[in-house]
Design brief:
It is built from 13 helices and twelve strands. It is of the alpha/beta class and 390 residues long. It folds into two domains: 232 residues, Aspartate Aminotransferase, domain 2 (3-Layer(aba) Sandwich); 142 residues, Aspartate Aminotransferase, domain 1 (Alpha-Beta Complex), CATH 3.90.1150. The strands form three sheets. The chain has a seven-stranded mixed beta sheet, with helices on both faces. Strands 10-11-12 form a three-stranded antiparallel beta sheet. The protein has a two-stranded antiparallel sheet with strand order 6-7. α4 packs across α5. It is globular, with a radius of gyration of 21 Å. It binds pyridoxal-5'-phosphate. Pyridoxal-5'-phosphate binds next to α4 and α5.
């Protein structure tokens, strides 16, 4: 059996007629950049997310960059980021000549650890970028409390978490000053190229984001500000409009797949329960945990990735590959270990939980169209690896 990490072809075929006609509609219109198709997409996404303003942009990375520009982050400002995330989270800070300040992550959720966050605040700190990693909200009550206490901006990196909820049904992207999303094809809501979104509930910020998206000219060709080209194409908007009504169904399937993995791992005695943080005889693998899942606060994890931590990770990956199962490592190198950030003199021992995750984490296929047979095969292949010590 073959189990790819992601199979976008299946999703495309399931919506082929609608997607094809949406593409043709754009071709007929010959209106390629921003315009009515993009405005409709923005309105539909604002409704979906429950926010006042949503603006389509060129990518998730540009969403983050634009957000920081709108908040006037500049040279010498410090911006706090989790050290364990996709590169863009820290890259955008450094690109503005500001200083990314790294914080360790929580060993259960992989999200920024509030207890370490507060210690990193200085007089130069301007903003915090919590990342909702793998599709689960960061602990926003604590992040917002800390931000308020120190008068800091909050930019949510929700690139992997569109539709995820923190609690009480409120979707990520509504907690900070600006929310950022990505429509890269491998995200839960993916377009046919690069695309992204910024969200806010503040009308002044929305206006500034809108102007900076088109080089900062308002009116056109008159510049009080220096922005960039952060525009999204109509083709991407048209694709997103077809896919959006299916997003919650797809995310629910990912959640169902996660719970099937979970029960099968327990059945095979590879793990005792979710949320463990150390290996032992009963826990050859450490299962991810959707925190608060059962506590009534409605944390809603959308599983953009399903990541385990395992002993002998690299050998297991090879074993999976030999059995036609794809996996990936998100992420092998935390920011504080990246060569390009050594000028900041980060201290490796400050980040034990991120280091542990980087060394043991593995992402398994979790996409909505996976079958029960495929998941059963993945778990059995992993069980063989541990029990037969291959
Ligand atoms: C994908 C991703 C981004 C960047 O999005 P792009 O659309 O690829 O530029 C930023 N942050 C995180 C956490 C991501 O996963």
């Amino acid at each position: 059996m073959n189990v790819p990490l992601l199979d976008l072809k299946q999703q495309y075929l399931s919506l082929k007629a609608e997607l094809d006609s949406a593409l043709l509609r754009v071709a007929e219109s010959q209106h390629f950049i921003l315009g009515p198709e993009v405005e409709r997409m923005e309105q539909e996404l604002a409704n979906y997310l429950g926010c006042n303003y949503a603006l389509g942009v060129s990518s998730g990375t540009d969403a983050l960059l634009l957000a920081l520009m709108a908040l006037d982050i500049r040279q010498g400002d410090e911006v706090i980021v989790p050290t364990f995330s996709f590169f863009a989270t820290a890259g955008v800070v450094a690109r503005l000549n500001a200083v990314p300040v790294f914080v360790d992550v929580d060993p259960v959720t992989f999200n920024i650890a509030p207890k370490d966050l507060e210690k990193k605040i200085t007089k130069k700190t301007k903003a915090i970028i919590p990342v909702h990693l793998f599709g689960q909200s960061a602990e926003m009550d604590e992040v917002i409390r800390i931000a308020k206490a120190h008068n800091l901006y909050v930019v949510e990196d929700g690139a992997q978490a569109i539709g995820a909820q923190y609690k009480d049904g409120k979707k990520v992207g509504n907690f900070g000053d600006i929310g950022c999303f990505s429509f890269f094809p491998s995200k839960n809501l993916g377009c046919f190229g690069d695309g992204g979104l910024v969200t806010t509930n503040d009308n002044m910020l929305a206006e500034k984001l809108r102007i900076l998206r088109v080089h900062g000219g308002e009116p056109k060709y008159y510049h009080k500000m220096i922005g960039g080209n952060f525009r999204i194409d109509a083709i991407q908007a048209a694709v997103l409009r077809v896919k959006l009504p299916h997003l919650d169904g797809w995310s629910q399937k990912r959640r169902d797949n996660a719970s099937l993995y979970h029960s099968l791992f327990l059945e095979h005695n590879l793990a005792a329960e979710e949320g463990k943080t150390e290996f032992d005889k009963k826990n050859k693998i450490l299962l991810p945990k959707a925190v608060y899942q059962n506590s009534g606060t409605k944390n809603y994890h959308i599983y953009n990735q399903y990541c385990l931590r395992v002993e002998r990770r690299d050998a297991l990956r090879t074993h999976l590959a030999e059995n036609n199962i794809s996996s990936e490592i998100y992420y092998p190198v935390p920011f504080h270990r990246q060569e390009c950030f050594q000028y900041l003199n980060p201290k490796d021992s400050e980040f034990p939980d991120s280091n542990f995750s980087a060394e043991h984490i593995i992402a398994l296929p979790i996409y909505p169209e996976l079958t029960r047979e495929q998941i059963t095969y993945v778990v059995k292949t992993i069980a063989d690896f541990f029990t037969k010590n291959v």
